Amino acid sequence: MSDSAAPERAIVIGAGLGGLASAMRLGVKGYAVTVIDRLDLPGGRGSSITQGGHRFDLGPTIVTVPQGLRDLWAACGRDFDRDVTLKPLDPFYEIRWPDGSTFTMRQDEAAMEAEVTRLSPPDLKGFRKFLSDSEDRYWFGYENLGRRPMNELWELIKVLPRFAWLRADRSVYAHAARRVRDPRLRFALSFHPLFIGGDPFRVTSMYILVSHLEKAFGVHYAMGGVQAIAKAMAQVIRDQGGTLRMGTEVDEILIENNRACGVQLMDGTRLGADLVVSNADAGHTYTRLLRNRAKRRWSDAKLKRTRWSMGLFVWYFGTRGTREMWRDVGHHTIVVGPRYQAHIRDIFIHGHLAEDMSLYVHRPSVTDPSVAPDGDDTFYVLSPVPHLGHENGVDWGREAEPYRAKMLAMLEERLLPGLSERVSESLVFTPESFRDRYLSPLGAGFSIEPRILQSAWFRPHNVSEELPGLYLAGAGTHPGAGVPGVIGTAEVLAQLVPDAAPIAPMRMAAE
Ligand SMILES: Cc1cc2nc3c(=O)[nH]c(=O)nc-3n(C[C@H](O)[C@H](O)[C@H](O)COP(=O)(O)OP(=O)(O)OC[C@H]3O[C@@H](n4cnc5c(N)ncnc54)[C@H](O)[C@@H]3O)c2cc1C
Description:
The chain has helices spanning 17-28, 66-75, 80-83, 109-119, 124-144, 153-165, 172-179, 183-190, 209-217, 226-239, 282-289, 300-305, 341-350, 396-414, 431-438, 483-496, 505-510; strands at 9-13, 32-36, 48-51, 54-57, 86-88, 93-96, 102-105, 220-222, 243-245, 250-256, 259-265, 270-272, 275-278, 311-319, 332-335, 359-362, 377-385, 423-429, 470-472. By secondary structure, the chain is α/β, with parallel strands linked by helices. The chain has three domains: 9-86 and 223-305 and 450-510, FAD/NAD(P)-binding domain; 90-218, no CATH class; 310-438, 2-Layer Sandwich (Guanine Nucleotide Dissociation Inhibitor, domain 2). Helix 5 packs antiparallel against helix 7 (172-179) and helix 5 (124-144) packs across helix 9. It is globular. The relative contact order is 0.19. The protein binds flavin-adenine dinucleotide (FAD). Flavin-adenine dinucleotide (FAD) binds at residues 13-19, 36-39, 44-46, 59-62, 195, 249-250, 279-280, 284, 312, 314, 382, 438-439, 445-446, 474-475, 481-483, 486.
């Protein structure tokens, strides 16, 4: 299909961070890239909505492993720090329990040890051991497995002994519980999988590597929100000669001679390509975009059996005249509810909307005043909830407003006194919003859950098992969700996609 007088064409479906990173990598490889997304702004879950002068960063707020972004920019011959300003946060975040006790996460080792000693002196030794366990898993799980293709079964078989030695069969919580006794510390060391859609009581303990990532590389905020990173990525793509078509939905991946040969848009327009990358959710890619092809591995039945990450209820709100209020509330706070394991079971196993909740509170205005009008604050509060696939699922049409009111009451009591009189803007996302905005199967917040038998080779491969010429990037593929994860999917993809054929020199000279 390719014409040596013109560059080979690549279409990327989806301008999520994984799609944008893939487009950048394909640009370096010499492809003429077109990125297509149904939203009006690039970034997918990392996009934003501005309402009444408040910029609501819709999804990711914590940027870890900035070198992943720096490597991506460097691969394109660019300097990330010229395009985006990352601000390191100290402290990283604060955890508050119902009994009034708190725990502040920081990068500084001595400060962290002092925090652990304050809560539970006998746990200091176990805490140190946990951090060294976390570093071991970082080198193996992140630097080794996470940065290379895992589409060959042999790649998985080779690493099984190491998995066994690291006790990857144990859950994150089980690992934390072996190292520390205090239930609050067990929570503080094990809740991280929730940020990539995993049940801490079931996700493989390989994911304790996140503690090392935070300690070694810090927790950062992108000034302008993750939206600023996405916009900078889009600019790199344009500078490479690529195109972004926003507000455009792909209806189907086209097939010719048993290869992906382009896409059909919702209005019937057909666009040809030499290869197609789907950054749409892997589930949506196989059930919807490739609906007219029989699947060998990712059949509808298999996707139905797959365990999906939980849903998210997110309340974005602005508050008037509060910048000098709530001075003890920093950029990131976790307000823990009364139950941990039983609450997680309600969300992941029973699919039941619990009476109680645990909240992650984002207050970017303390770091980046540009998110809100002068003197005001911008917040988002997130509560993990069941996805839409459980039997007797939640009726969000009925439940959303009472749930938001309950959230408000909890915030008012535990964190932000007087909040109800200060709210000036409000926007709510339920799992239905994730389904409708991002075309996320079951409205899941983070695609396929990262359980051990749904990780690495077991995830949808970055080079499609179903159709030559089709590649996948983003949270549902290897290595997985989270900003570093999806940037990683593009790094892996770049190792699988051949370089574009060189353009014929005669024509180039003539042009
Ligand atoms: C509320 C929330 C908070 C989070 N917090 C953090 C955090 O603090 N730190 C962190 O590292 N990670 C965080 N994450 C996870 C992280 O944001 C995601 O894993 C990551 O952004 C997903 O990127 P992606 O490349 O998979 O694409 P997505 O963001 O899922 O984007 C996919 C894009 O494809 C488009 N699309 C789909 N189908 C079509 C179609 N048929 N035609 C055209 N376009 C289509 C969609 O419109 C969307 O823009 C958070 C996620 C959420 C939801």
